[in-house]
Amino acid sequence: MIIKVYDKLPQDALDLRIKVFVDEQGFVDEVDEFDSVATHLVMYDNEKPIATCRFYLKEDKETYMFGRLCVLKEYRGKSLGREMLKSTEEIVKEKGGKAIILHSQYHAKPFYEKCGFTQQGEIDYEQNKPHAWMRKEV
């Protein structure tokens, strides 16, 4: 497995996000204004894209927003999401970031807690699905 880093949203990342978030989970708005300013990571199994995520710097210039983490169904349960998050944390540290925040789907909250994130505030809804804001100091 290899992880590639992109300054622009690559087609491989978009295809993965549509497959997981739109086709599997029923989200509608998959592309947003943050895709143009985010750093995108894509994990490959040989040439096949199998996982992706993105992150971008917030206004405070110390906190990074992490999101759009997804892994192809047949590759789940192999700690690839954790690997993507670890790679992101390393890059954020190199850039001088102090913290990472994210807006987790509620069902994924235990995964992020195992990775050291803590919930911030109450549960809210994005596209009618429960989410929790979470934070981790790096």
Describe the structure.
By secondary structure, the chain is an alpha+beta fold. The protein has helices spanning 11-24, 80-94, 109-114; strands spanning 2-6, 39-45, 48-57, 63-71, 99-105, 118-119, 124-126, 129-137. A hairpin with a 5-residue loop joins strand 3 (48-57) and strand 4 (63-71).
- Determine the number of helices (DSSP H or I, runs of at least 4 residues): 3
Q: For the report, how would you describe the main beta sheet?
A: 8 strands, mixed
Average pLDDT, rounded to a whole number, is: 93
Q: What is the string of helix and strand elements?
A: EHEEEHEHEEE
Structural class: alpha+beta
Taking all Cα atoms into account, the compactness measure Rg is 14 Å
N-to-C terminal Cα separation, in Å?
25 Å
Instruction: List how many beta strands DSSP finds.
Output: 8
Gross geometry? globular
Q: List segments where confidence is low: pLDDT < 50 over at least 5 consecutive residues.
A: none
**Percent in helix:** 25-40%
Tell me what portion of residues adopts beta-strand conformation.
35-45%
